[in-house]
Automatic annotation (TrEMBL):
Residues 498-550 form the PAC domain. Residues 29-90 form the ANTAR domain. This is SpoIIE family protein phosphatase. Coiled coil: none annotated. The keyword Transcription applies. Keywords: Hydrolase, Transcription, Transcription regulation.
Amino acid sequence: MDGEDDPTSGSSVNVSASPAEVGRLAATVARLREQVRQAQADADGRALLEMAKGVLMERLRLSPVEAARQLVELAQAAGISQLQLAADIVNQAARDQFTDAARDFLDRVASEDRPAADAEAGESLAVQLRTAESGVLAASDAQAVACSLLEHALTPLGATAVAIWTNDQGGALRLAGYAGFPEQEALRWHYVPPGVSTPARRALATREAVWFEELAATGLPSVAHQLMPRGGRVAVPAEAQGRIQGVLEICWPGAPIPQQPAVRRQIEALAELAAHTLGTLPAAAGTDHVTAAAGCGTQLAELADSLLDAALVLRAELDTDGRLMDFRILHANPRFTDPAGRPRSAVTGALLLEAYPLAAEEHGLFDKVAHVHATGEPFSTAGMAFTAVVGQVQVPTTIDVSIIRHGQDVLLIWRFADEAARLAHLLQHAQRLVRIGGFEEDHTTGRIMWSDQLYALYGLPLTAPAVPLEQLAALAHPDDTAAISRFLRTVLHHRRPGAVALRLQRLDGIVRHIRVVAEPVLDIDHRLVGVRGAYQDISAQHWTEVALAATRDQLAYSEQQTAERNRLAKQLQQAIMPPAHGPIDAPDLEIAVRYRPAEDDSLVGGDWYDATMLPTKQLLLSIGDVAGHGIEAATGMVALRNALRGLATTGAGPAQLLTWLNLVAHHLTEQVTATAICALFDPETRVLKWARAGHMPPVLIRGEQATTVPLVQGLLLGAISETTYEEGEIQLQHDDVLLLYTDGLIERRDRSLQESLNQLLATAASRAGGSLDQRLDHLLTHSSSDTDDDTCVIGVRLSSLSGQPLPDPALA
C-alpha cells in the first residue's frame, strides 16, 4: 500500500489514475476496513472468552490452560460456539441486567411459534450483549464505547447511530462519544447549552427513558436530526450510584422497535454501561471527569464561603446497591442560619435528613436536591414550603432555595423568607435588649400573664405571683401616686390607652425608673374583660436626660463665656486698628491701609499693621500675624506691636529691632509666636531697609510688572530665644508701589503657597492705573482666599507730591 492514498482519510487521489487503478484502490480500502472490523470483533470475542475462563478458574480452581481446554470441551459437548458458551457462563456468574435481558428475550422467543430463526437470535443476544460489555470494559474512551455499543448490541436491533451525552456543569450537555453519523455533525453538536430542549434533555428532566416514534413530529432538535428526519429516537438516562452521568441516545432510520420488556431491559443495560464509561473514562475531547470531581468539595466550600446567603455543601450517601439514601453535609458557610438556632458546627458532618427530617416530605427539599444531583439541572425557587423542628414543635416556614451540582457534590443555598421559626427567639432577645416586659390580665378568670423579662424588671423569681396593675401604686414612690391614679382611671374606667412614668421600689431595695403602657381589652358589648400592655425600664434614659440637661447648662455657660471673650478680643483689635486715621507727614510718600476682619466672630485673629513717623524722621512700617485666634492672639498682637514701636525709638535698624522683638515674644509673653516684617523708609535717600521674621515677601509693582522682593533670612518670632535676622534694601523709584500683607489675603486650602503668590502678582499687575486706595480695594475684591482669616494690607507709593499731608493709617 506504499504510495496509495486512503480515500476515507481526506487525502486527495491522483486524478490521472485509470478507472482500473481506482477500483483496485477502493477494493483494497474495503478489504482493510473489513480486516480492522474483524480484528476488533475478534478482540471483543477474546475479551468475552477471557471473562468466561476467569469464571471457570475461580469456580473450578483451574489453571488458565485447564480453563481454556474445559471451555472447548463444554462447547463441543453442548453443540454451541465457544462465544455462546462464554456468554452463558458470564451471565450465570454475573446475574445482572444483561442476564435478565437475554433471559427475557429467550422466554419471548420460546413462547412464540418461530423456534428456528428467533431461537437462534435469542441465543446470539447473550453473545451480543456480553461482547458489547467486554468491548466497553476494554475501551479507552467514550468514543470507543459508542462504537462497540452500536456494532455489537444496537445494530442487531435495527439502530443506525448512537450518541453518548455527558451531563455537564450548569445543566449543559456535551457529546462524549458517537457512532453512525459524520464527524462534521458531531462537531456541530459537541455542546448543547442549558435550556435547549432535546430528547436527551427530556430524559434528564423525567429521569426515565423517552421514546419518540418520529423525531420530526416533536420538533425537538438533536444530533443528526436533519440527516434522519423521519427516524425515531430513544433517550435513556445513564445512571450510576444514584447520579445520572449522562444520556444514551439511540437513532433508528424509522420507528423504534416495540417497547417490549426484553428490549427495554437491553437498552437500560446498555445505558448502565454508558454511565460506567462517563464515570470512569475520558470523553472524546479528553475531559477528565474523575480529576475534575476530586476537588469539587474544596471548590464548593470556597464558593459557599463567599456567598452572602446561608449555604451547605452536600455529598450523596449510597447504599450497598448504589442507590441514593441521603446526603452528607460536608460544609456550612459562615453565614449559615438554622431555623432551630443551631450553630453550623452542629449540622456539619450530619446527614441532611438527620438534621432536617421533615425535608423528606413529598416534592420537598430532599426531592429537589436529589433531582439536581441526579440530573445536574440547577433548581431555583422562591417561597418553597419548609417545616422546621424547633425543640419538639414543628414550625412551618418558607425559604428561597437555589441548588446546583458541581462534580459529585451539591451546593444548597437558602434564605428564610419567613422568620416565623425564629420569631419568639428574636422577640425574647429584643425584649432583653430594650428592657421591655409584656403582660396581660384577664378580668374574667383573674389570670395574669407576665413575660420572663417583666419578672426581671421587678426583681422577682419566675415562680413568684404576678403583681396586678391595680396594685402598682403600692410598689411605687409615694410622689408618683397621683400620676398612677390618673393612669389607672384612664385605662380601667375611661377604657382608653394610657401611659405613666414612675419610680418602682423593688423588694431588693433598688429603685428603677419605669414606663408603663397599657390598653383595655373589650368584648363585643364594649365591656372591660382585661388589660394588656408593657413595662419598660427607662432608668438609663432618665439618668441620660439628667446628664444631658447638666451638659446643656454647661455648654450654654461655655458659649456665653466664649462669646464674651470674642467680643473683648474684637474690641481690643478695633481699638488698636480703628477704622479712621489721622494724617501723617511723610514727604513724597503715599500710604494706604486696609483691614478685613474674619466673618466668623470666633476667629478674631492677631493680624496687625503699623505706620508711624519716628523722631529720626524715618517712617516705620510693620505688619505681622500672631498664631492662633481669640483673646490670646489679640493680646499677643498688642504686646508685640507696642513693643516694636518702643524699640524703634532707639534708632536701631530693622534687623536689630526684630532681634529684640524676638526676645520679647519668647520671654515676655505666654508662648506667643508670630510672623512679621519691619521696614524703615528714609525720605532723603528713598531707600527702604527691611527685615522679616518668617513672613511672606513684600510685592513691588514697578510700571506694569509685579514681582516679589528677594527674600532675606529670618526665623519667626518666639520660636527660639537667640536668633539673628538678615537685612535687605529696596531703592524706590518714582511711582513704585510696595505691598505688605498677611496670609489672609492669599491663603487657600486647595493650592500651594507659591500658586497663591503667583495669583496675587497677576492681580496686582492687572491694575496699573488708579489711586493707591483703588489698587488695595481691587486686591481685596479679587482675593481668592478661602480660610476666613483676618487680612491686613499696607500700600506705599513713592510720588513727587512733596509737602502734602498723608493719612496715618494706624494711630491707636
